[in-house]
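Long-time lurker, first post.

We've been arguing in lab meeting about whether pyridoxal-5'-phosphate would sit comfortably in this protein at all. Half the group thinks yes, half thinks no, and nobody has a model to point at. So I'm putting the question to the forum: if I give you the sequence and the SMILES, can you give me back a predicted structure of the complex? Inputs are below. Any interpretation is welcome too.
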Amino acid sequence: MLHRPNVFQIDLRAVAACTREIRTVIGRGRPFIATLKAGGYGYGVLPVALTVLENGADALSMSSLHDAVALREAGIKAPILVYAGTLADADSVAVHEEYSLMPSLHDEASFAGFAQHLKARVRVAVKVDIGPERIGVPLSQAREFIRRVHAHPRMELFAVHAHPNVQHGDGEGVRECMQWQYDRFVGLHQELRADGIDVPWFALASSKVLRMPGASMALSAVDPGAALFSSLSGGPAQAFAQLRTRLLAVRTVERTEHLQQAAFPMRQGMRVGVLPIGYSDGMHRVHAASVLVRGQRAPVLGKPALEYTRIDLSSLPDAQVGDEVVIIGRQEGAVISPEEACAFQRAARVIDLALQLGPTVEREYIGACGSPLSFSQP
Ligand SMILES: *Cc1c(COP(=O)(O)O)cnc(C)c1O
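Top reply:
Settle the argument with this. Predicted structure of the protein with pyridoxal-5'-phosphate, as tokens:
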């Protein structure tokens, strides 16, 4: 009641369907780590975690220690792999131990930090960089690094993971570049075997890898994130159900002066609607150039302001304060799909829309029984 009426509605039935689809693709026995980075890609960590664990995921992963601790405090017992993100100081190491979180050692400093501060023996992962040039032990040093981790008395080496990186789409050389990264990672696996080091989870299959035909790169564990929210195979499951608000004010343009200098094409007599959502909420990065009011399209006027967006209601003389406004989704048979919004925004994936919506936008969940559950924080 105290929020502005901005609601991002998330379909957990779609998350469940996407999770089951991934399970079908990878087969029964293979560990499935569901990645919930960035607050579960904007969809919310706890509701998504509960849904994926109920529908075939075995473990979770994320970079935020804060989110990992919140999941433990909510009673989640599944293994949690923590990606690089927090410096390995005494406090962070103690939190990993206390909440049974598996850290990703990704360079000498993180190895040294855990070696210095660990009090008991814990499961650890090593992150290897096979191509993105972003984070992880460079492949050229990985074998020797992993041998030292394996030999450490307070470290149980449980996972080695990598995150391949290629440009979006199926452009020239994309498959070959992915294959090159995969081959390097498999080469490391063979070297470790030769050293007598067996790692339970050897994983590089993020969503893009699983989308390649046959899931032939699934190795001994997978860690997809984006594919929890939109069907891996391009099927209909889509977790982004709706983004809506309400009409806050309606006004008629009276001025005749300086119409040329206005922030949008303005005419005297034009009916302007004002929405209580703006660029501080992410509106400028998610809208599809028009919104739905009373089942009709109303164009967005100019750029969203900090907390307001104007729309043209000239062809909707009956629209009034309090009317529901759908920015993405369905209304009375009309629809603005997330894909349409992506195309207008030049966003690659629907998760890139969800990631723009700040904590000021309330999350509403449609569960398996169709009853909306509200969580005020993402
Ligand atoms: C983000 C991430 C993933 C999941 O990637 P998606 O493309 O969202 O499936 C897997 N592994 C690591 C290390 C990551 O950082």
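For your lab meeting: The CA atoms of residues 8 and 363 lie 5 Å apart. The first strand starts at residue 7 and ends at 11. Whichever side wins, do check it experimentally.
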